[in-house]
Amino acid sequence: AQSVTQLDSQVPVFEEAPVELRCNYSSSVSVYLFWYVQYPNQGLQLLLKYLSGSTLVKGINGFEAEFNKSQTSFHLRKPSVHISDTAEYFCAPVDDYKLSFGAGTTVTVRA
Amino acid sequence: DAMVIQNPRYQVTQFGKPVTLSCSQTLNHNVMYWYQQKSSQAPKLLFHYYDKDFNNEADTPDNFQSRRPNTSFCFLDIRSPGLGDAAMYLCATSRLGQGGEAFFGQGTRLTVV
Q1: How far apart are CA B72 and CA B2, in angstroms?
Q2: At residue A52, does pLDDT exceed 90?
Q3: Residues B93, A86: Cα–Cα separation, whole Å
Q4: CA nearest A5: which of A96, A98, A92?
Q5: Which of A42, A100, A104 has the CB atom closest to B106's CB atom?
């Protein structure tokens, strides 16, 4: 069974500053990896995904993530955040077609 | 256009009174999931359907049941809601073989009074 660890529960950041959200997964099989964003009282929206190929994955809203197999990591980054990026972010590996979510990272962007 | 639709968005039910949450999809995906998300926590998978095959997670209480009468619809039945069942319930769909990407509905926030 897979498990996933999001190393930061809360990340406060100033507007236009860069942000990195860390995710480590454990698995002995090939993985598909996802990052989802959840705005207050909303469902989850896919930010980006890694299935295979290039380890640098670009997603929506200027986010990108790098798959690192040797470190079993899939960290999410954005070079310059906006107020509207304030949300909860979930890292989610897929195992046997089921998503298992990390505990989430709350990003709060301040002016 | 909404692809995974959950109704209602907000549901208030009485302690012990059965309640049903609904989910429909226009994606023709073969897998449908129900997740429970409590405040400030990650979504927790309750069960899923792969076509008509029902798959219950080992720690899902018997109080939670599901029905999938056809490809498009899936229901979550809570037979006797307790105060601890108050949560956001998320429905999601995916198509096996497309990398497992799941599409989520907006969720139903359940309040138990």
Answers
A1: 13
A2: no
A3: 26
A4: A92
A5: A42
Task: Name the token pair of A28.
Answer: 């002995």
Q: Tokens for A105?
A: 């990272």
Strand partners, B90: B35
Sign of the alpha-carbon torsion through B68, B71, B7, A97: positive
For chain A, percent helix, then strand, then coil, each to nearest 5? 5, 55, 40
Residue A58's CB: how many other CB atoms inside 10 A? 10
Token readout for A32 is 């598909």
Looking at residues A25-30, what average pLDDT do you find? 69
Does residue B26 sit in helix, strand or coil? coil
Interchain CB distance below 8 Å, A97 and B105: no
Q: What is the mean pLDDT of residues A49-54?
A: 89
% of chain A surpassing 90 pLDDT: 71
Who among B31, B42, B99 is closest to A32 (CB)?
B99
In the prediction, which pLDDT does B101 show? 84
C-alpha span between A87 and A14 (Å, rounded): 14
A5 contacts chain B (CB < 8 A): no
What is the identity of the amino acid at A23? C
Looking at beta carbons, which residues of chain B come within 8 Å of A51? 99
Higher pLDDT, B83 or A1: B83
Q: Which two tokens stand for residue B80?
A: 């006797």
Query: What's the mean per-residue pLDDT of chain B?
Result: 93
Helix (H, G, I), strand (E, B) or coil at A83: helix
The C-alpha of B2 sits at a distance from chain A's nearest C-alpha, in angstroms, of 12
